[in-house]
Specification:
This protein has 327 residues and is mainly alpha-helical. Helix content is 62%, strand content 6%. The protein has one domain. The strands form two sheets. A two-stranded antiparallel sheet has the order 1-2. The protein has a two-stranded antiparallel ribbon with strand order 3-4.
């Protein structure tokens, strides 16, 4: 099967989700405890204490992801389904309790609940993979649409990503999906054709959507900042410089209006999740504490950043190789 449809994507998601469910009892790292505590923090505490609480100094698993991811954790712990699970005893309340590091062993119910949230969050990965694969066919290159389903399959069955999220325990698939959605919009915006010596480009809103998704991605995980220069220079050239055909030649002009709109869209999507923290009693203190958590120079940022940067550069190189294959 080489064609890609919504039906085939859903079938693949259900099949892979069943396989991932079999990984529930496998090894899990301390990242499982980290995210369990973040669930507890966002479940029990007011927003003003999210980035300050360390369970009275008994844990090192403090909240150190940007606000949008904190709201994601809050959404997992504060919803009708989770409340129903707690009320009926299908999820023990200890799973969402503020526990010290020396007494935080999870129950089987808690493991199933948290593993299940990762599996469900992979919906974003599948959407991103689907949109990115489909968008490549708009470029017009002969090789890009040759086997879209297998391209899609290679993304969603990445063994490293499965091990990292569904064994080790993280939510990288969801964030990679958001990156792929942004890339899909970017590719859509890159499509163009020439009719009667007039350059017809796709709607510029595709590039604004791409920038907005990337802004949201930064508000989910700040380590994607390493991609910011690539986005900046690409969108500056593609979106802010207008190409006009003139006879057998063409002219390029810079649009300040487009630059302003692009900057506004990116900043709104990135800074939007910070606004609730700016509305607290001590907004300056909130921002200072968030920055201390996001960039912990006092506790090993020299180890933390390079390792994650290597992983993200791997994604970049992998993407470049696959895109180049379609050129």
């Amino acid at each position: 099967m080489s064609s890609l449809s919504i039906k085939s994507a859903i079938q693949t998601f259900l099949l892979l989700s069943s396989i991932k469910w079999l990984l529930l009892p496998t090894y899990r790292s301390t990242d499982f405890d980290v995210h369990r505590l973040w669930l507890a923090i966002t479940h029990h505490l007011p927003l003003s204490e999210w980035y300050f609480n360390d369970v009275n100094g008994t844990t090192v698993h403090t909240l150190d992801y940007p606000p949008l991811f904190a709201f994601f954790e809050s959404g997992l712990g504060n919803n009708y389904i989770t409340s129903t699970l707690l009320e009926n005893g299908w999820l023990d309340r200890r799973c969402l309790s503020l526990l010290p590091d020396d007494d935080n062993a999870p129950s089987d119910q808690c493991v199933r609940f948290q593993r299940g949230t990762v599996i469900l969050s992979d919906v974003v990965l599948f959407i991103g993979a689907y949109l990115a694969t489909k968008s490549m066919t708009t470029l017009g290159e002969e090789g890009c649409g040759r086997a879209p389903y297998f391209t899609f399959l290679l993304i969603v069955t990445n063994p490293g990503l499965i091990l990292l999220d569904h064994v080790h325990f993280q939510y990288n698939g969801m964030m990679l999906g958001l990156l792929l959605i942004s890339i899909a919009f970017m590719v859509r915006g890159a499509s163009h054709r020439i009719e009667n010596n007039i350059l017809i480009q796709n709607d510029q809103r595709w590039e604004l959507l791409s920038a907005g998704c990337f802004g949201m991605l930064l508000a989910m995980k700040h380590l994607y900042l390493i991609l910011a220069p690539l986005y900046f220079f690409y969108l500056l050239r593609r979106h802010c410089f207008v190409v006009e055909m003139k006879g057998k030649g063409y002219s390029i002009s810079f649009s300040l209006k487009r630059l302003v709109v692009l900057a506004m869209v990116t900043l709104v999507c990135f800074l939007g999740p910070f606004i609730p923290f700016l509305m607290q009693n001590d907004p300056v203190g909130q921002m200072q504490q968030i920055m201390k958590r996001l960039f912990p120079f006092g506790r090993g940022v020299s180890r933390y950043i390079p390792c994650s940067s290597f992983c993200h550069h791997h994604v970049l190189i992998y993407t470049y190789i696959n895109v180049s294959a379609c050129s």
